[in-house]
Design goal:
The complex is a heterodimer of chains A (278) and B (175). Chain A is an alpha/beta fold and 278 residues long. Chain A contains 9 helices and 8 strands. In chain A, β5, α6 and β6 form a beta-alpha-beta unit. In chain A, α1 packs across α6, α3 packs across α4 and α4 crosses α5. The N terminus of chain A is likely disordered. The model of chain B has no long low-confidence stretch (mean pLDDT 89). Chain B is elongated. Chain B has 175 residues and is an all-alpha fold. Helices cover 59% and strands 0% of the residues of chain B. The chains are: A alpha/beta (278), B mainly alpha (175).
């Protein structure tokens, strides 16, 4: 508990826009929206200092539901957009968001390099192990034996992507996993991610009520990690690979050097034009 | 995750901060459900959730009036001492469906209200502080009145039909 007095002027709903979410009733993404607004309210971040950048997919609609700056970009390109924005407006709290298909397949390469570049961004991946907006195809995090999609009636037969392991191997300095069924716990992870200096990656298990109704059972198997976060890569790797994928909490946090491009504030449009000519 | 220094029975301020969060989160959740059902062209259920949100808003107002001369502490969402991941009055999101009917919505509301009432009962029973006990008693009584109202409301609506999920042209079919 903090010793600050409650400020009724800054409530989570302060960060919500008037646009009504089109997500299916019961979708886990509602709770992620709620957790994010709780974090921003807790941090008392002015709305005009926040930019939420997304790609394409159900989860990538997130910026529309927030009354902050936002950009609903193109498929898989949330991280390049967010990185560009952070490069020129380093004072902003820049949050990239999207789904498992957008982030790990179409945007997979950007994910690797955003991790190693370690810009001061927060990336929230709302992982439901399916492409929901295009009506239920297997995504990179879908287990190989999921047979409910007409495109993969025998399952994909391909081992699923392990986001935390890839993030760690690529050099992310903050890696956490949360669950939409615990929005308050998730709010803590997002808050810590935003406060972390460097690239913070938060994978959120978020059931898709329409195409993966069996994911309702996740709430029975999700559990907190039984260890405190590590700053040791080898230790974190062992924990990630020894885990069932349903543990939540901060997995890894380290103080890596943050990439911050030097800004040429005195540069005018004419200077830029001259640089192209020269 | 929960700090022992923020137990709701320790002081009036901490208790009311919890009560405020409980009611405010319920207001938000019912609004969210109303929006979702409105978007999915189920205006009857959307209206019920909107009305439930107004009720929760009135309850928030009651908590605010009880706290009007106090400075409530700011408690981080993850430090609220609920016994479940979310506040007592916002369970059952997963029971929602775009074809749900009035009976489903009110059953969810009854369940949530019962949980909220149990929460206030628990605080009243556990708190060693007489003032906290008295406030918890008032909020518990308010929940009992609301439960009665919901019970009467549920009696006025038709029973849920068995095939309510049937949709000859569903919006979301796996492809």
């Amino acid at each position: 508990m903090t010793d600050r007095s409650a400020n009724p002027a800054i409530k989570p709903k302060h960060y919500k826009s008037d646009v009504k979410p089109v997500w299916c009733p019961g979708c886990g993404h509602f709770s992620i929206l709620s957790a994010l607004t709780k974090s921003l309210a807790y941090l008392e971040t002015p709305k005009e200092d926040v930019a939420v950048i997304s790609g394409i997919g159900c989860s990538s609609r997130l910026p529309a539901y927030l009354d902050t700056y936002g950009f609903h970009g193109i498929h898989g390109r949330a991280l390049p957009l967010a990185s560009g924005l952070k490069a020129v407006r380093p004072e902003l709290t820049v949050i990239a968001a999207g789904g498992d298909g957008d982030g790990f397949s179409i945007g997979g390469n950007h994910f690797l390099h955003a991790c190693r570049r370690n810009m001061d961004l927060t990336y929230i991946v709302m992982d439901n192990e399916v492409y929901g907006m295009t009506k239920g195809q297997a995504s990179p995090t879908t287990k190989p034996d999921w047979k409910q999609s007409k495109l993969t009636p025998q399952g994909t037969g391909v081992r699923q992507f392990n986001p935390a392991a890839i993030a760690l191997a690529s050099g992310a300095s903050f890696i956490a996993r949360g669950f939409s069924g615990d929005p308050n716990g998730l709010s803590k992870l997002i808050t810590e991610g935003i406060k972390h200096r460097g690239f913070s990656f938060i994978q959120v298990l978020s059931p898709c009520t329409t195409f993966r109704p069996e994911q309702k059972e996740w709430k029975k198997i999700v559990h907190e990690f039984d260890f405190v976060s590590s700053s040791n890569v080898i230790e974190a790797a062992q924990r990630i690979h020894g885990d069932d994928g349903f543990s939540t909490g901060i997995i890894f946090q380290a103080a890596y050097e943050v990439w911050e491009p030097e800004l040429k504030t005195s540069e005018t449009l004419t200077d830029i034009e001259q640089a192209f000519i020269a | 995750m929960n700090s022992t220094s923020s137990l709701p029975y320790d002081s009036i301020e901490i208790f009311l901060a919890h009560a405020y969060a409980l009611e405010d989160e319920a207001t938000d959740r019912y609004d969210q459900l109303a929006d979702a059902l409105e978007i999915h062209n189920n205006p009857d259920v959307a209206n019920i959730f909107r009305e439930l949100s107004l009720h929760s808003q009135r309850h928030t107002g009651m908590v605010m009036s009880l706290a009007k001369d106090l400075t409530l502490p700011k408690i981080a969402p993850w430090e609220l001492t609920w016994r479940c991941p979310e506040g007592p009055e916002i369970d059952c999101m997963e029971g929602c469906h775009y074809l749900m009917n009035a009976a489903h919505a009110l059953t969810i509301a009854m369940h949530n209200e019962e949980r909220a009432q149990s929460y206030y009962t628990m605080v009243r029973q556990k708190s060693p502080n007489n003032s906290v006990q008295e406030l918890a008693r008032q909020l518990e009584a308010q929940k009992a009145r609301h439960l009665k109202m919901l019970g009467e409301w549920i009696e006025r609506i038709p029973e849920s039909v068995e095939d309510w999920r049937d949709d000859p042209d569903p919006a979301n079919m796996p492809e």
